[in-house]
Specification:
The protein is an alpha/beta fold and about 475 residues long. It has helices at about 5, 10-20, 25-40, 50-65, 110-115, 160-165, 185-190, 220-230, 275-295, 310-320, 325-330, 335-345, 350-370, 415, 445-460, and strands spanning about 45-50, 80, 120-125, 135-140, 140-145, 170-175, 190-195, 215-220, 265, 295-300, 375-380, 420-430, 435-440. Helix content is about 35%, strand content about 15%. It is globular and about 60 Å long.
Length: about 475
């Protein structure tokens, strides 16, 4: 096998090759690191590349295979970790100049589980400051560029993970999603991103975002996301919000039929503006999925949709007001948009917060009642394709000091409600920029979302296309 192609293989393919001793973990890691060396720092997906550590782990993985030792689901497969996740011996900077440079003293459960499954950590990926925005830029690392077009946004706080997946920097990338930060980079980068049901994968440290933050995979294939979820899902005592359930057989059940399920399609949730080119691509993709699934696609206008924007913006700024103590020392070195958002959140009282929280819980109940009538909801993932950095909004959209949510109305409702949701690549604009179709399932039906995404992947394959900056 040509070594330069190993970095583009799926984790599913790589693990099979490793077990047959057809490919060594050392060869895999060398191929991925070579791809990173070719394209970093121009893409700028990494805070740190752990080359020597990865090579040492690969040699140990190779020795285990050759000795006949037991191997895990991800043995010898490279993975990246977002720089908001603690890893013992490494600093956690969260995209900010104001965070400690001292190494962490503990490792988050999601990383431990990946390593226990045999995965090899190759680096820490970039994030905007404290993951606050849908734009791939931070004071600490600068811009993370879209592999499909240099100088363009890669989207949201798992930006480095999305860019790395698209650029062939290995098959598995850990992300987190508090308002779309797994699905939005998947949309902008032309890869797959899955936000599981809330609590499905341990999130540590437990987020202060009022039960909205989820850990999820960013991958090039649906099968790899299923494999990754099988490796990391399940309860953990460090995250008291985790679901008391072992991982489902995500890989074994991936290709079960979707026929007979009730499928809703909403092009705008009753309120959201969508660029015409994106809307057309998403509608065509939804129709293609319905045909492949042999189901009827019913267009709907959810009554709860227009209730989301005020809630989304309130809680985004109110929850980020926890960073007010940083402003005295760091304000002039922080992202100006983040500072504006924090300042906006300062205006709210505890009474305001509790009143809005009661409204939010009613809103969540309406979403779950909606899903009593539907198995899946299909929407655009994001209203726009990638746009130039470091803008918060596309030039043709209304401008605001911090509100990036105007073009991202389809993601945060399902963070509030905790539903599983995934973005699948569904086409390209005339400018060659990727667009995503979002699948949303009932709470706890992660398997159903993965099955729908796998069916669409089979009907409309996307992994054969590679971005010009990394292909």
């Amino acid at each position: 096998m040509i070594s330069t192609e190993l970095n583009w293989l799926s984790a599913t393919e790589l693990t099979a090759l490793v077990r047959r001793k057809a490919v060594s973990p050392v060869e895999i890691i060398d191929a991925v690191l070579a791809q990173i060396e070719r394209h970093e720092p121009r893409i700028n997906a990494f805070v740190a590349v752990l080359a020597e550590e990865a090579r040492a782990a690969a040699r140990a993985a190779e020795a285990a295979v050759m000795s006949g030792a037991a191997t895990g689901l991800l043995h010898g497969v490279p993975v990246t970790i977002k720089d908001v996740v603690p890893m013992e011996g490494l600093p956690m900077r969260s995209g900010s100049l104001g965070t400690p440079t001292t190494p962490c003293t503990e490792t988050a459960p999601v990383v431990t589980r990946l390593v226990d499954a045999g995965a090899i950590v190759i680096g820490r990926t970039t994030t905007p400051e404290f993951g606050w925005t849908g734009v791939s830029h931070s004071p600490l690392t600068g811009a993370t560029h879209n592999p499909w077009k240099h100088g363009y946004n890669t989207g949201a706080s798992s930006a480095g993970a999305g860019a790395a997946a698209a650029a062939g920097f290995g098959p598995l990338h850990e992300g987190s999603d508090g308002a779309g930060s797994v699905r939005m980079p998947a949309h902008f980068s032309g890869v797959f991103g899955m936000k599981p049901s809330f609590g499905r994968i341990p999130y540590y440290p437990v987020s202060l975002g009022d039960l909205t933050s989820h850990v999820g995979p960013v991958t090039r294939t649906v099968g790899d996301a299923a494999l990754m979820m099988k490796s990391v899902a399940g309860p953990h005592p460090w995250d008291h919000t985790t679901l008391e359930a072992p991982p489902a057989d995500y890989t074994g059940r991936l290709h079960e039929p979707v026929r007979g399920r009730r499928i809703a399609f909403s092009p705008d949730l009753g309120h959201a503006r969508v660029d015409p080119e994106v809307a057309a691509l998403v509608r065509k993709a939804a129709e293609n999925f319905a045909a492949a699934a042999e189901v009827e696609l019913i267009e709907v206008t959810p009554t709860w949709g227009p209730l989301g924007p005020e809630l989304g913006r309130f809680f985004w700024s109110a929850n980020l007001s926890r960073l007010v103590p940083m402003l005295a020392k760091w304000e002039d070195r922080m992202d100006p948009g983040l500072v504006a958002c924090i300042r906006d959140g300062q205006q709210y009282s505890l009474t305001d917060y509790q009143v809005m929280r009661a409204r939010k819980y009613r809103y969540i109940m309406e979403i779950h009642r909606f899903f009593e009538g539907w198995d899946l909801l299909l929407t655009p993932t994001v209203s726009v394709a990638a746009f130039p950095l470091p803008r918060l909004q596309p030039e043709h959209w209304e401008q605001h000091p911090w509100d990036w949510m105007s073009w991202a109305e389809f993601s945060y409702p399902f963070n509030h409600a905790g539903n599983p949701a995934a973005s699948v690549p569904c086409g390209f604009t005339l400018a060659g920029l990727p667009v995503g179709l979002q699948f949303v399932g009932r709470r706890h039906d992660d398997v159903g979302v993965l099955q729908a995404a796998a069916l669409f992947e089979k009907a409309r394959p996307w992994t054969d296309r590679r971005p010009p900056l990394a292909g």
